[in-house]
Amino acid sequence: MKKLILSLSIGLISASLLLAGGYSVGDKASDFKLENVDGEYVSLSDFEDAKGYIVVFTCNNCPYAKAYQDRIIKLDEKYKPMGYPVIAINPNNTDVKPDDDMSSMKSRAEDKGYTFPYLKDTDYKVYKEYGATRTPHIFVLTKDKGDLKVSYIGAIDDNYQDASAVNDAYLANAVDALLANGKPDPSFTKAIGCSIK
Predict the structure, then answer these.
(1) What is residue 27's DSSP assignment?
(2) Domain locations in the chain?
(3) What is the pTM for the complete model shown?
(4) Which of 47, 60, 108, 188 gives a 20 to 30 Å CA spacing to 182?
């Protein structure tokens, strides 16, 4: 009887996760077309020479997102020339977080000197499809025979407070593994940050 209850509970958990949506490592991801802070619309397909993408769901004022801004810029500067550009997406509802509107996003991108697109998920559909729950939340996608394969999901590293004290650079290690034709290990970590509003 205990085994049956446990099995039923696991089944319900699995069903609820499926209903919640979101990608798992190994899934095929969809492209999107979102407005950038420069007024242009950006899709992943615009980056024809890319081998993959570092998709970062982030925002303007979450303490975690702010702590990672400079690291995300450095990641883009390092990996974009190698074929893995950063694509940042702000998923927050501006009715709840007015300081995540496009005007504030433009100011943030200019002040920090963002080297990557900073897009607004205006209809709040992309973050739901991907399954992002935090800011920041990372999805590394790899081009695979015309598809976009999810290769890593989770955190940037293990220390949002101090870049010099990072022990595990999860995201960088994942991209390095992919560039060496390997597989990220780990390929999934828990995203640490503010909940998406």
Answers:
(1) P
(2) 23-195
(3) 0.89
(4) 47
